[in-house]
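> example.struct
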């Protein structure tokens, strides 16, 4: 869970770095790709956007939480001027996270956003991410933050709550994920025992991306590095201490473009035997 929460914070990281060559050292093993998802994407042109949603709670027995959020919204271009929105799926119950569909009054289409921990809409801050669309908005993607405040009602009595949220962020008509390639090596350090430096080269093949490098041995988490790069590639350095008997580690590399399109690849990196 700690690592899942850290991944949700990736978009707030402001570290910028550039590629670097591997330094010398003891014998290395180059990571071997296991799987890769995502295709090459075109250069994006993200556009700032705002949206205001006036929400209420309506009983809905088809959803696990028993309630759905619905209401009206107004927005700035390139979104439609106004429309209605309603939760269509509950993804998590604690905290409640939802998929919400926004339907334009002018008939131009719909777009669907993922909103984690939506209780913040009643007064606080949260994030949104557009993950799907139809008709004019079929390729619309975007992400950002929102500020919510309570208009009326009691926060402990959800059916009574009326609230308003204001989005800020960027969108683009670009549903193509960046193409990610990566390689990693493990360099044995003299001490402490079973300690390795693991530099990972991450190439998104387009400038400006957010990354995470998640290193594991089996089910054990060893390191997680997140950040952003203004160039098309970056070298991410991590230091790990492998569990006894570990012969290889898994390096999961994920990159995300400016509007939330995501690709990942998984590497297996062999370790030089260490004295136990």
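> example.seq
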């Amino acid at each position: 869970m700690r690592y899942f929460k850290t991944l949700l914070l990736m978009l707030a990281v402001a570290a910028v770095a550039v590629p670097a060559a591997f330094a010398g050292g003891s014998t290395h093993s180059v990571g071997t790709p296991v799987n890769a998802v995502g295709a090459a994407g075109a250069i994006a042109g993200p556009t700032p956007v705002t949206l205001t949603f006036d929400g209420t709670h309506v009983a809905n027995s088809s959803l696990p939480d028993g309630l759905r959020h619905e209401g009206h919204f107004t927005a700035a271009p390139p979104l439609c001027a106004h429309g209605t929105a309603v939760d269509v799926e509950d993804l998590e119950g604690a905290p409640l996270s939802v998929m919400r569909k926004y339907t334009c009054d002018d008939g131009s289409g719909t777009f669907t956003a993922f909103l984690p921990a939506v209780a913040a809409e009643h007064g606080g801050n949260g994030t949104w991410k557009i993950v799907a669309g139809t008709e004019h908005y079929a390729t619309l993607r975007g992400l950002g933050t929102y500020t919510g405040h309570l208009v009326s009602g009691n926060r402990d009595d959800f059916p009574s709550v009326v609230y308003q949220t204001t989005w800020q962020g960027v969108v683009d008509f670009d549903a193509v994920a960046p193409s990610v390639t990566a390689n990693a090596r493990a360099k044995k350090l003299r001490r402490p025992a079973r300690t390795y430096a693991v530099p990972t080269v991450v190439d998104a093949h387009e400038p400006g991306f957010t990354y995470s490098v998640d290193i594991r041995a089996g089910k054990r988490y060893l390191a997680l590095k997140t950040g952003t790069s203004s160039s098309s590639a970056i070298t991410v350095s991590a230091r790990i201490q492998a569990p006894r008997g570990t012969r290889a580690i898994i390096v999961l590399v994920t990159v995300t473009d400016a509007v939330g399109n995501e690709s990942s690849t998984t590497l297996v990196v062999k370790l030089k035997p260490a004295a136990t």
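> remarks
The chain has a mean pLDDT of 84.
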